[in-house]
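User: Fold both of these, please.

Assistant: Here is the first one.
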Amino acid sequence: MSDIVRPPKEVFNEGPFIYADILDFKNLQEIVVNERVDWLIHFSALLSAIGERNVPLAMRVNVEGVHNVMELSKQYRLRLFVPSTIGAFGPDSPRNPTPDLCVQRPRTIYGVSKVHAELLGEYYHHKFGLDFRCLRFPGVISYDTEPGGGTTDYAVQVFHDALREGKFSCYLEPDTRLPMIYITDCLRALVEMMEAPSEALKLRTYNVTAMDFTPEELFREVRKLVPELEVVYRPDGRQKIADSWPQVFDESHNQSHNHI
């Protein structure tokens, strides 16, 4: 694993951890050569809400960073995974369900950068033979880390706030349906995608999902464990983002190809 920030002790103790700046191509080359890397999983990105607050930085990290890992993977013949997102779709996309192949046209810099990554990866695959693989993940739910600035993060933050404070302020309307996946299922899908033979992949980018729900439905379940939970709905700019995203993912392509 690598990052530009100091990792928590439990992350550091789980295996090798090194400093890496996605914008420093020479540094990345040294890591690939010195560590004998053959698979590269590229998670570095500014997420939807954070990206809208700092578009120039999102352009550098999300676009220039992808260019670096594409060139690196081409040069050293790496198998490259770049995650995409429900944010790669926009208000012109079918929302329920949203298929793998349809109009996208996202309205956030995060989404635009992910469409760019999807198409660039496909181009590198056909032009240079790059073994590029991509999954469009929905909102990812986990319990052990605080949210990182995404529009679906309410589905994680509510658990922290319910246990700490017994109340939660939700930035989405109660009936805003979005697709979600738990972190262990997310990682399982990633591993299965990376292990799949390249010739078995009919597409280079697939949708993947596990469930879909609204804030109201989630809070109803949380109250079964924390009955005193108080929820106030205060929609902000993230509501407009969520309204442009898929409500339900169609993942029939990856199911029919039997690799995820």
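And the second sequence with its predicted structure:
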Amino acid sequence: MGQKVIATARNIDRIRDIEQAGAAVMTVDVTWSPEKLKEVATSAIGTYGRVDYLINNAGYPCQGAIEEVSHQETYDVFSTNVFGVLNVTRSFLPHFRERRSGGIVIISSISSRQYFPGITIYSATKAAVSMIGEGLKDEVEALGIKVLTVDLGVFKTSAFKRDTNLKKAAQVIPDYKPINDRYDEIREILMGNEPNDPKLGVLRIIEVITQSGMAAGRVVPVRIPLGKDAKEPLINNCHDIIEEVEGWSNIISSTGY
């Protein structure tokens, strides 16, 4: 699509193929200090003279029941998945505000809306960044900055490979074995059989944030699910919420003066 790209990773060797395709690459760890991330933003802006779009895509899951995942493991996941998004975004916002243009994409997950056994902590981080995205859009839209939050379905990536991205809680509590077994079963079924093409996923995200292609002439949504497996769970979740609210409406409405 003719875009100039700056790709980042903690281990730059993992994105050498992107560099060979013509992108600029930078070593970045989103858990770095806010001050260092501001330096990263300055360097990135200097690469091509400006940055038009920021894609917040860093994140990883930690498998385990809530009791199994330690305070430190929880903090580490939130540091990458939530605080990383906040600090990287804050680093680029002055540039976007100054230009009164630009776009920010926050990659979330359908697990922010739908419970998956064994990764509640991960789901909590994605629910957090989704709300951050919704609030950010309201805060900066009047400044000419577009914000899009994407709840991804399951795409053919390395997300389910334990040796590359998925971490597991160090503590194992036998009572929670059924929950972890359920996640392992789902992971084994999906690994290699992911229903969505990441290239098409990237294309759709670009089209929506740039209002081109299939999204030409359309307003950038606040938050959108993406993936052939993402629509039905969201609709079912909405139905469940409505059913629960209606079923408990007498209690819900019972506290007014």
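The chain has a mean pLDDT of 95.
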